[in-house]
Task: inverse folding
């Protein structure tokens, strides 16, 4: 049996996004946004959209691949795939699923996409309008434990307690995202810099999260094109090769009513070793990281669980200068991410990771050859991936 | 009898047992002022929240056992931003996750009674307080916690 790996076999050949809007401000429907992003990604790759033969998405995206295939007039549809799980946990997994389809011969050209028009649908951060709840929600909603921020503040509070991590560590993550957004004209928070003083003065959403620890909610769409490595070389001068990917979570991570045996986790302790094993690199080889910010505390835990530093080192490592491109020790969320570029459920982070390999980021890390994405801390399943430049394959 | 005061204002979603009956013994127990959790009748493993089989030995013979409503605060949060219309004018409130060492270390959720601005200490001992909602369309009782 050949080695079971995706390493170097597929690449991201094109990326695209719509304009990013504040939530509820998209001038067109969510489905139109999806089409715009897909066509933009094809144009970026120099690819005829009729070459698409598959779709992968996550988090119950509402835009049905069969309708998209019909709208695009595709000759045939060979692969359609939805990664289970909510939040942004499926962002890297959707890319991996697309890559597995291409590497395994199920399809030749798979689009990974995510579209969100929060103004047209229920917001993530508001309680659903229901009179009764059952199951897991019956154990949480009557206590006012309802929103994602409220669900995950419980985990982060425990983690900060166990490791004596100070609020400044979370603050540095927020400031880095806002700093990078100031260089990125696509960013919703472009032109809206954040200072440490403004962070400290911001209101509590739920302790230990202040306003700026929490992601935005936005309208827009993002898409990327996954093809074989050979084909990518014909399409783009500098494809971003997939070096590795992994998804999942620990033993009984979803045990109900907050009973996961390993509670204070971003869910990556078993996932990250698989990622590095496939990619054939270690944390010291990673040039730049995009780490999904649902909440800054989740980023902190994700970085620890991916081996960039220990929890005991978090107070020392998580200072703003360390996190800034181009000179920081660990350049983080270089487009502005979910906090300040756009909450496109983290697919904008995959696009940014590819841009770093292509040398096209607005906060470029010079010579970036190994570029990581961490998707959806604290949910289950989570996922992460590593992209590499030509020198790595 | 006048309805007991509740920690959070009326109007939040009311809990009802799952349609398949999985957690019905828990909710019935709270109406009697009893805290019932699962314990495997074969391997004696504790289990919470409820599931149809034992996660340790996979036996379907998972029984319900009354446990003493005491524990320690494992983690907590103080919510300020109202995400539900019923909470809009309410102000902050505290949610705790309580570990029950005498029941295999299972954890149970609830609000922490008392001043919503109180200092909360992880590891502090707490005890269960039953909060009946007798006027609900389907009456129910929540399990809350207070520092002892």
Result:
């Amino acid at each position: 049996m050949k080695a079971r790996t995706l390493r170097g076999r597929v690449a991201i050949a094109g990326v695209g996004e719509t304009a990013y809007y504040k939530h509820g401000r998209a001038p067109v429907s969510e489905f139109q946004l999806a089409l715009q992003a897909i066509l933009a990604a094809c144009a970026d790759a120099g690819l005829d959209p009729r070459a698409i033969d598959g779709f992968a998405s996550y988090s119950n995206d509402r835009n049905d691949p069969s309708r998209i295939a019909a709208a695009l007039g595709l000759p045939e549809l060979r692969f359609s795939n939805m990664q289970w799980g909510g939040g942004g946990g499926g962002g890297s997994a959707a890319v991996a699923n697309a890559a597995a389809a291409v590497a395994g011969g199920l399809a030749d050209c798979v689009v990974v996409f995510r579209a969100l028009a929060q103004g047209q649908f229920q917001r993530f951060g508001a309680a659903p309008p229901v009179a009764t709840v059952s199951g897991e929600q019956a154990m949480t909603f009557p206590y006012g434990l309802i929103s994602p921020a409220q669900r995950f503040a419980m985990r982060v509070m425990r983690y900060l307690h166990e490791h004596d991590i100070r609020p400044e560590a979370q603050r540095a993550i927020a400031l880095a995202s806002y700093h990078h957004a100031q260089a990125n004209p696509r960013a919703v928070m472009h032109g809206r810099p954040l200072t440490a003083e403004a962070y400290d003065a911001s209101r509590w959403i739920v302790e230990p999260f202040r306003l700026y620890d929490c992601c935005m909610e936005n309208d827009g769409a993002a898409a990327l094109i996954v093809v074989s490595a050979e084909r990518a070389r014909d399409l783009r001068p500098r494809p971003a090769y997939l070096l590795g990917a992994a998804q999942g979570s620990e033993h009984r991570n979803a045990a109900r009513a907050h009973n996961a045996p390993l509670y204070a986790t971003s869910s990556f302790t078993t996932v990250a070793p698989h990622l590095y094993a496939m990619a054939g690199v270690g944390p010291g080889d990673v040039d730049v990281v995009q780490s999904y910010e649902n909440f800054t505390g989740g980023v902190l835990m994700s970085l620890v669980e991916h081996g960039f530093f220990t929890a005991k080192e978090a107070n020392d490592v998580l200072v703003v200068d360390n996190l800034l491109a181009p000179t920081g020790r660990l350049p983080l969320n270089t487009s502005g991410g979910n906090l300040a570029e756009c909450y496109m459920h983290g697919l904008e982070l995959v696009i940014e990771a590819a841009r770093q390999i292509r040398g096209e980021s607005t906060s470029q890390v010079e010579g970036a050859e190994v570029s990581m994405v961490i998707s959806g801390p604290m949910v289950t399943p989570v996922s992460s991936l590593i992209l590499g430049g030509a020198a790595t394959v | 009898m006048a309805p007991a005061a509740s920690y959070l204002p009326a109007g939040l979603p009311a809990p009802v047992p799952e349609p398949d009956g999985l957690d019905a013994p828990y909710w019935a127990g709270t109406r009697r002022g009893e805290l019932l959790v699962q314990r495997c009748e074969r391997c004696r493993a504790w289990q919470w929240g409820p599931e149809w089989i034992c996660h340790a030995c996979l036996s379907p013979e998972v029984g319900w056992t009354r446990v003493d409503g005491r524990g320690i605060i494992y983690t907590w949060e103080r919510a300020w931003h109202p995400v539900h219309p019923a909470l809009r004018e309410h102000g902050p409130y505290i949610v705790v996750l309580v570990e029950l060492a005498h029941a295999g270390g299972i954890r149970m959720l609830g609000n922490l009674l008392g001043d919503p601005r109180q200092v909360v200490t992880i590891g502090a001992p707490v005890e269960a307080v039953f909060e009946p909602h007798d006027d609900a369309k389907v009456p129910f009782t929540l399990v809350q916690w207070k520092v002892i």
